Amino acid sequence: MTTIANNLQQVLGRIAQACAAAGRAPDSVSLLAVSKTFGAQAVVQAAAAGQRAFGENYIQEGVDKIAAVGRAFVPALQWHCIGPIQSNKTRLVAEHFDWAQTVDRLKTAERLSAQRPDHLPPLQICIQVNIDGGPTKSGVAPADTVELVRAVAKLPRLQVRGLMSIPDHAPDFEAQLAIHKSARRLFDQISALKEEPGLEGFDTLSMGMTADLEAAIHAGSTLVRVGTGIFGGRTYPAP
Ligand SMILES: *Cc1c(COP(=O)(O)O)cnc(C)c1O
What we know:
Layout: H1 3-21, E1 30-34, H2 40-48, E2 53-56, H3 59-69, E3 78-81, H4 90-96, E4 99-103, H5 106-115, E5 123-129, H6 145-153, E6 158-165, H7 173-191, E7 204-206, H8 213-219, E8 223-226, H9 228-231
Parallel strand pairs: 1-2, 1-8, 2-3, 3-4, 4-5, 5-6, 6-7
Helix pairs in contact: 1-8, 2-3, 4-5, 7-8
The structure holds pyridoxal-5'-phosphate.
């Protein structure tokens, strides 16, 4: 077994254990493998071990990797954009990715919808929420989230799937849990609006990374985003 395949098994074990501890079904949480900074070979190894969903932060790097790995696997790999989306990058995201999890402004969503090619299914969207409130952080303020979700739900080439959050590092399980629970409350509030047009697919709460996936699952995460735990430490930092 390769190191990546072995790491993947361990992460899946952590997820299963956290689900059991939280009294949740083991298939209620899925795994996004965050392959940023790692090459196409790392993706191929994880895919050969059964992983299908991959997350990329840097859009051009992601697009290059999508081109290199192709859509050779069956079922096909699924690519999620989880990094900041500047206006001049929306077209690349709309043309190459399956999901965009970092939409925090209506303008970005409008561009993604307008630029999503007709031959592709709607781009799957999570609204990024600034759940712990840092003024310089990405993400819509919790108080403005419902309004943004409703506006994005009206766009024709997008499908709103849920919320994502990237809270700051918290020192222990209880602190992590408290933050993740506030995202869960917002998620539940919007899930209650599912009969509204465009919100029927709202089913994803993307939170939890290598260091805090147990707390995130306990709070109700449906999608954990794990990089280090699968691929190891990153050798170059975020630009
Ligand atoms: C890098 C990254 C991750 C993965 O973080 P790890 O701590 O390596 O698991 C998850 N989500 C986002 C948005 C990231 O940028």
